[in-house]
């Protein structure tokens, strides 16, 4: 078991590994025993595979379980209201505890509900995807708006994150790919040696569990350090958005859930790498090709369809276009581009991908 501390106020811990839910029996038992109700909000798919692991760890406690739609389809106002209705129907109060169980989508919407129910109740994150090594840590909660990704949400830290890595065994290939994009994002913005190691991976399925766990813990440590420095994204936290200006536009334009978040981020990082012509760009594009990221999407997507979403990005003000450039690995920087410059880079990106796929 690995543990990463997140020194926000209040601070909390991320427990990563086989048997992470044991912490519910040990360290967090007093907190759970003190709750008047415990509500579990679970992604229905994740619950069908792994709910029993959580139930075993919470044995003897009176739980109320709400299953929400699988994945991105849950990140909307309907599910948000359904969670609140469920909490009210079950007579939850300010002394109740919520446990979010699932990938980033379930974690984001359940975290948002926890942060707003009676103005905020204690909650735990129990991530079940690779990508959620990112989403479960750092306290960003959200639902989507048709006009933009994560447009409605809060900063609200969990009491702890219990990351049972046995849950990752049932992830479909596309979700492994999606999650690994946020892993390599953490490497790009922090650590050339680690990036080197990740760029050697040509097939995620060949990666041993222990190695994956180490990458997840490293990613969580990178994220924790940035969140500690800038919890509410006035400065350094923007670097965690590497690849995301274009990614969120791709997701919004396609319709939420049509392209996985991580796959969109993988494509968005190509754009951000091209801003300062990062020396590993070609190698990274080849890594994306080898690992099956949908590079072809970019050749079909017109810049003008993505532009309105990028102008509404949360890093932007007054319609400017804000990206995270990477002049060298580990040295991210905010880049404000003119529309003309962004269009030129997008054209370069499309040409590069056409060459690689030819
Ligand atoms: N809050 C943050 O800081 C943050 C960070 C990164 C991403 N996000 C958000 O996270 C979301 C993406 O999260 P995600 O990639 O975890 O996707 P997801 O939550 O949409 O889950 C993807 C799919 O995997 C299924 N699933 C979940 N766990 C499973 C398991 N163990 N076995 C089999 N299937 C399983 C889900 O039912 C779903 O169909 C996006 O909405 C993104 O915006 C938030
Ligand atoms: O935690 C952060 O900060 C991030 O930017 C992490 C991202 O991977 C994540 O997708 C996040 O939800 C994006 O936030 P947003 O504020 O751009 O919606
Ligand atoms: Zn992300």
UniProtKB/TrEMBL annotation:
<dbReference type="Pfam" id="PF24621">
    <property type="entry name" value="DHQS_C"/>
</dbReference>
<feature type="domain" description="3-dehydroquinate synthase N-terminal">
    <location>
        <begin position="66"/>
        <end position="177"/>
    </location>
</feature>
<keyword id="KW-0028">Amino-acid biosynthesis</keyword>
<dbReference type="GO" id="GO:0008652">
    <property type="term" value="P:amino acid biosynthetic process"/>
</dbReference>
<dbReference type="InterPro" id="IPR030963">
    <property type="entry name" value="DHQ_synth_fam"/>
</dbReference>
<feature type="binding site">
    <location>
        <position position="140"/>
    </location>
    <ligand>
        <name>NAD(+)</name>
    </ligand>
</feature>
<feature type="binding site">
    <location>
        <position position="244"/>
    </location>
    <ligand>
        <name>Zn(2+)</name>
    </ligand>
</feature>
<dbReference type="GO" id="GO:0000166">
    <property type="term" value="F:nucleotide binding"/>
</dbReference>
<feature type="binding site">
    <location>
        <begin position="104"/>
        <end position="108"/>
    </location>
    <ligand>
        <name>NAD(+)</name>
    </ligand>
</feature>
<keyword id="KW-0963">Cytoplasm</keyword>
<dbReference type="InterPro" id="IPR056179">
    <property type="entry name" value="DHQS_C"/>
</dbReference>
<dbReference type="GO" id="GO:0009423">
    <property type="term" value="P:chorismate biosynthetic process"/>
</dbReference>
<comment type="pathway">
    <text>Metabolic intermediate biosynthesis; chorismate biosynthesis; chorismate from D-erythrose 4-phosphate and phosphoenolpyruvate: step 2/7.</text>
</comment>
<feature type="binding site">
    <location>
        <position position="182"/>
    </location>
    <ligand>
        <name>Zn(2+)</name>
    </ligand>
</feature>
<dbReference type="GO" id="GO:0005737">
    <property type="term" value="C:cytoplasm"/>
</dbReference>
<feature type="binding site">
    <location>
        <position position="261"/>
    </location>
    <ligand>
        <name>Zn(2+)</name>
    </ligand>
</feature>
<dbReference type="GO" id="GO:0003856">
    <property type="term" value="F:3-dehydroquinate synthase activity"/>
</dbReference>
<dbReference type="InterPro" id="IPR030960">
    <property type="entry name" value="DHQS/DOIS_N"/>
</dbReference>
<feature type="binding site">
    <location>
        <begin position="167"/>
        <end position="170"/>
    </location>
    <ligand>
        <name>NAD(+)</name>
    </ligand>
</feature>
<dbReference type="GO" id="GO:0046872">
    <property type="term" value="F:metal ion binding"/>
</dbReference>
<dbReference type="InterPro" id="IPR016037">
    <property type="entry name" value="DHQ_synth_AroB"/>
</dbReference>
<feature type="domain" description="3-dehydroquinate synthase C-terminal">
    <location>
        <begin position="179"/>
        <end position="316"/>
    </location>
</feature>
<keyword id="KW-0547">Nucleotide-binding</keyword>
<feature type="binding site">
    <location>
        <begin position="128"/>
        <end position="129"/>
    </location>
    <ligand>
        <name>NAD(+)</name>
    </ligand>
</feature>
<protein>
    <recommendedName>
        <fullName>3-dehydroquinate synthase</fullName>
        <ecNumber>4.2.3.4</ecNumber>
    </recommendedName>
</protein>
<comment type="similarity">
    <text>Belongs to the sugar phosphate cyclases superfamily. Dehydroquinate synthase family.</text>
</comment>
<keyword id="KW-0057">Aromatic amino acid biosynthesis</keyword>
<keyword id="KW-0862">Zinc</keyword>
<comment type="function">
    <text>Catalyzes the conversion of 3-deoxy-D-arabino-heptulosonate 7-phosphate (DAHP) to dehydroquinate (DHQ).</text>
</comment>
<keyword id="KW-0520">NAD</keyword>
<keyword id="KW-0456">Lyase</keyword>
<feature type="binding site">
    <location>
        <position position="149"/>
    </location>
    <ligand>
        <name>NAD(+)</name>
    </ligand>
</feature>
<keyword id="KW-0170">Cobalt</keyword>
<dbReference type="Pfam" id="PF01761">
    <property type="entry name" value="DHQ_synthase"/>
</dbReference>
<keyword id="KW-0479">Metal-binding</keyword>
<dbReference type="GO" id="GO:0009073">
    <property type="term" value="P:aromatic amino acid family biosynthetic process"/>
</dbReference>
<dbReference type="InterPro" id="IPR050071">
    <property type="entry name" value="Dehydroquinate_synthase"/>
</dbReference>
């Amino acid at each position: 078991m690995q543990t990463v501390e997140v020194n926000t106020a209040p601070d909390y811990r991320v427990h990563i590994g086989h048997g992470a839910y044991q912490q519910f029996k040990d360290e967090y038992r007093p907190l759970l025993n003190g709750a008047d109700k415990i509500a579990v909000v679970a992604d229905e798919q994740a619950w069908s595979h792994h709910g029993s692991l959580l139930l075993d760890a919470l044995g003897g406690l009176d739980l109320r379980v709400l299953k929400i739609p699988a994945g991105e389809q849950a990140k909307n106002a309907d599910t948000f209201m359904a969670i609140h209705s469920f909490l009210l129907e079950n007579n939850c109060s300010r002394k109740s505890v919520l446990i979010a169980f699932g990938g980033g989508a379930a974690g984001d919407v359940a975290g948002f509900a926890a942060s707003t129910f009676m103005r905020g109740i204690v909650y735990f994150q129990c991530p079940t995807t690779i990508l959620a090594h990112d989403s479960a840590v750092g306290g960003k909660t959200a639902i989507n708006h048709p006009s933009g990704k994560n447009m409605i949400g809060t900063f609200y830290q969990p009491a702890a994150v219990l990351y049972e890595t046995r849950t990752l065994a049932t992830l479909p290939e596309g979700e492994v790919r999606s999650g690994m994009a946020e892993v390599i994002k953490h490497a790009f913005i922090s650590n050339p040696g680690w990036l080197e190691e990740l760029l050697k991976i040509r097939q995620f399925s060949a990666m041993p569990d222990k190695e994956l766990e180490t990458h997840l813990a490293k990613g969580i440590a990178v994220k924790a350090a940035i969140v500690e420095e800038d919890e509410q994204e006035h400065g350094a936290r923007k670097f965690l958005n590497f690849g995301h200006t274009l990614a969120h536009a791709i997701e919004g334009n396609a319709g939420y859930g049509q392209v996985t978040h991580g796959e969109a981020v993988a494509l968005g990082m190509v754009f951000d790498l091209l801003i300062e012509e990062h020396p590993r760009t070609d190698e990274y594009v080849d890594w994306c090709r080898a690992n099956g990221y949908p590079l072809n999407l970019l050749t079909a997507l017109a810049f003008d369809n993505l532009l309105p979403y990028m102008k509404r990005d949360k890093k932007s003000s007054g319609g400017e276009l804000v990206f995270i450039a990477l002049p060298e690995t580990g040295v991210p920087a905010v880049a404000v581009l003119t529309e003309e410059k962004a269009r030129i880079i997008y054209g370069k990106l499309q040409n590069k991908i056409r060459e690689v796929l030819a």
